[in-house]
Amino acid sequence: MDQVEQHRPHVLIFPFQAQGHVNSMLKLAELLCLAGINITFLVSYNIHNRLLRHTDVVSRFSKYPGFNLDHYPDAYDESKIHTAQQIMELYSSLQSVVKPFLREFMSKDPAHGTGKNRSRFSSIIADGILSLALDVAEEIGLPLIYFRTISAGAFWTYFCIPQLVEAGELPFPGDDMNIRIENVKGMEGFLRRCDLPSFCRVSDLTSPDLSLLLRETLQTPRAKGLILNTFEDLEGSILSHVRTYCPNLYTIGPLHAHLKTRLQLQVANSNNSNSNSNSLWQEDKSCIKWLDNQPPKSVLYVSFGSITVITREKLHEFWHGIVNSGVKFLWVIRPDSIKAEAGDDVLKTTKSTPEMELEEATKERGCMVGWAPQEEVLAHPAIGGFLTHSGWNSTLESIAEGVPMICWPYFADQQPNSRFVGEVWKIGLDIKDTCDRVIVEKAIKDLMVERKDEFLHRADEMAKMARKSVEEGGSSFCNLVRLIDDIVKG
Ligand code: UDX
């Protein structure tokens, strides 16, 4: 670091160790680097190595001398996280291993030693589910802003859980999951039991996963501010409720589109790489060539994100539904995403005649990869729809490109996200809690054929709003400027 860089604010960014969190927080890191802020991006040793192995993060960030990628000792292998139970295990190791590390890391200044007010950092941006960072920041006296990687809508449903319990709406009195929920302000008209985060589907409210998420969410107002990867035109009415508890809100999304716009504004010849992948798996770019040969808006992109694991039975229902729809498809099947015996190839083990026909049709109409360059895929003119698990990054990436969705949420925040897509924004179909080949086939035909124009029109309107929000003068643009000002002022 030269002398100028030494006098710049230095922000420690500390994400939760999972793809969706690292991805969006690294985008924020780059936006702050572009504004001349020094960043230390702190991840687990394993994530650090995966980023180095699968991305060009080192060369991409080499143009920002104030950027530093650092790591803490592995507390838990994040590639094992597929269930709420595993998230719980990760948390307990974060407390025992990472919290002491963080205390030392945050309070030490190589130039001036260790102790209160000796940190080399001017502030911290921590993942909004890592209150251990907030505890340490308060001990040391450093300002901390939270970054929550979920939608405002999902955040708000978590935040309202105490009201639901008080009103007797939780635990669910009865089995009918279609009953309306009345005590999440702003969502009275459309939220059903089945649309609450999956962790609410418990008979015992002291269940560890719900308690943990609730505890993490309810302490959000302790932070100096809250950054959300969303934009005002998308979630304005819910944001007004969130603001009553967290008034210092920075809505700066969609972050990937925001970063892209800022990078395009940089001088075109400044050696900017087109790829800004933060993937923890190796991207298979061959699918882009395959897409290049498909007609516009003809291909369904199928991906269930970085955590989802599905049974062989469900996979087969999707496979039949997708192939029977007659639509062309690009399907991401992560190597670790299927509950199966090691070594058996799910799409080739059964060899009955109908299955062989299915395989033939798959070869004719489909392309399958283990991990795709998703942002590039969704921006490709051949893509006409997205069958998604409704992770928030995937949802925003689809919205920004005007791609309508079929939503099959897996867990956590994905249940409310899919309700917003289907019922509030009306840019897709919500097929949660069903996994039947006939329903899948019908949904694809509806989205990609029968109601194609209607969905594309609405998705296109939404994409325009997303773009407007990150352009100069747009709400996300202005909020990022405010965030940068606040970081600089300290
Ligand atoms: C989960 C949550 O559901 C999400 O809302 C939360 O913010 C983080 O944890 P995940 O399953 O990882 O997320 O889904 P999502 O939020 O959609 O993130 C997946 C990311 O991986 C996206 O940015 C997507 O572009 C990327 N991806 C996915 C690829 O780059 N290639 C792929 O093949 C699949």
Folded structure, characterized:
This protein is of the alpha/beta class. It has three domains: 10-149 and 223-269 and 469-489, 3-Layer(aba) Sandwich (Rossmann fold); 153-210, no CATH class; 285-338 and 351-449, 3-Layer(aba) Sandwich (Rossmann fold). The chain contains 20 helices and 17 strands. The strands form four sheets. It has a seven-stranded parallel sheet with strand order 3-2-1-6-7-8-9, sandwiched between helices. A six-stranded parallel sheet has the order 14-12-10-15-16-17, with helices on both faces. Strands 4-5 form a two-stranded antiparallel ribbon. Helix 16 links the parallel strand 15 (383-388) and strand 16 (405-407). The protein is globular. Bound molecules: uridine-5'-diphosphate-xylopyranose. Uridine-5'-diphosphate-xylopyranose binds next to helix 2, helix 15 and helix 16. It holds the Pfam family UDPGT. One of its GO terms (molecular function) is quercetin 7-O-glucosyltransferase activity.
Q: Which features does this protein show?
A:
six-stranded parallel β-sheet, UDP_glycos_trans_CS, binds uridine-5'-diphosphate-xylopyranose, globular, 490 residues, Rossmann fold, alpha/beta, single chain, 3 domains, seven-stranded parallel β-sheet, 46% helix
